[in-house]
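Notes taken during the Thursday session

The instructor put the following on the board and asked us to keep it in front of us for the whole hour. The protein is Ribonuclease. We were told not to look anything up and to reason only from what is written here. First, the residues (219 in total):
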Amino acid sequence: MSVVAPKLTLERRLLSECDLIISLDEVGRGALAGPVAVGAAVMDAAGARRRVPEGLRDSKLVTERRRPDVAARAAAWVQASGVGWASAAEVDSVGIMRALGLAASRAVQSVVDSGVVLDGALVLLDGNHDYVSPVHPVPLRVRPVVKGDRDCASVSAASVIAKVARDTYMAELHESHPAYQWDRNKGYASLEHRDAIRSLGLSPHHRSSWAIADVPTLF
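Then, after some discussion, the predicted C-alpha cells were revealed:
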C-alpha cells in the first residue's frame, strides 16, 4: 500500500494567521541509550508555496539509506532548521517529558540563534501534548497536531532532520562502545543491545533510571 505524501494544507491555512511556523518533532523518546533530539523546521508563507521535496515523509517511513539525502533536501527547502538535544543524564534527572521539553526549547533557540524572530511565530508540535511551553523561557504559541509528522510537510522535515542527526550521533558513540551495536540499533531495545547490557551492564550513555532489563525487544 502506498504512503500518502505529507502536504502543506495546514501550514498554508495557519500562515494566514501568523508570520511563520516553527515545526517540531522528536526522535529517541523510547530509546534505552543516547539523547532525545527534537528537530525544528521553519516555514513562512513564501516557503509554503514551494513544492514539497520528493520523498519527504515522516522519518519512520523513509529507509535509513535514503534519509540523509531526504534530510539534506528538507533542510534546503525550509527557511531555517536546527536540532535540540537532551542527554540521557537529563532524562534520568528530570524525566522523559521534561527532557523532551528541554530538547524542544533548545531546538527553538537554535533557529532563533540563526536569525528567526519568535514574534508572530506559531510552534507546530507533533503529538497531542504541549511539552515545550512549560520549559521555554519566553511564551510561545504552540499547536500540537496528532500525526503531524505524517500529514504536515514541515513537521516531516523536522522529523527527518532530527532522525539523521541523532542516528549520526549514535553511530559516533558506537565507536567507543561497540558491544552495544548502536550503529545498528541507535540505542533502541534490540535483542543484541539487551544481551550486551546483561553481559556488560550500563554505559554512561544509558538511561539508568529506566527499568531497562524489563523492556520489550523492539527490533
